Amino acid sequence: MLHGNEPDPRFTLANERTFLTWISTSLALSAGGIGIAVVPEDVFVPWVRTMLALMLVLLSAAAAATAYPRWRRIQRALRREEPLPPPALAPLVGYGVAAVALLALVLILAR
Q1: Which residues of the chain have pLDDT under 50?
Q2: Which domain holds residue 96?
Q3: How far apart are the C-alpha atoms of 12 and 19, rounded to whole Å?
Q4: Which of 47, 49, 51, 54 has the most Cβ atoms closer than 10 angstroms to its Cβ?
Q5: Buried b or exposed e, range 75-88, using 16+ CB within 10 angstroms
Q6: What is the pLDDT, as a whole number, of residue 79?
Q7: Torsion angles phi and psi, residue 84, rounded to 5
Q8: Which residues neighbour 59 within 8 Å (Cβ) at sequence distance 6 or greater?
Q9: Within a domain: 4
């Protein structure tokens, strides 16, 4: 149960949209990981496909696993009129996706 004052509904709904966006991001990362896993062998060698797929699926799991706890922390801060917590997962997902993309780019160009 969340205690404190009821926040402005717009903030609560914005928080909910952010939660749903993290879930959508998680689904997209998971789909990307599955897509990389089934890329033909002539594009990437098997260990590279597996590594790229694992990186995307792990990022997906991290986004999904932290979406709800983040929603709760933000909702609690809104109710208590405290500063919002920083987006700790955003750098991990951003840099992780960039690393996967750069590695894939290098491997495609090196082919």
Answers
A1: none
A2: 9-110
A3: 11
A4: 49
A5: bebbbeeeeeeeee
A6: 92
A7: -75, 145
A8: 29, 92, 93, 96, 97, 100
A9: no
> pTM of the full predicted structure?
0.85
Domain total for the chain? 1
Domain-located, residue 61: yes
Quote the tokens at residue 101. 């993309």
Closest CA to 52 of 108, 110, 111: 108
Question: What is the rounded CA–CA span in Å between residue 62 and residue 49?
Answer: 20
| 27-48 pLDDT per residue, tens | 999 999 999 999 888 888 888 8
Report how far apart, in Å, the C-alpha atoms of 99 and of each of 4, 45, 59, 91 are.
41, 18, 11, 12
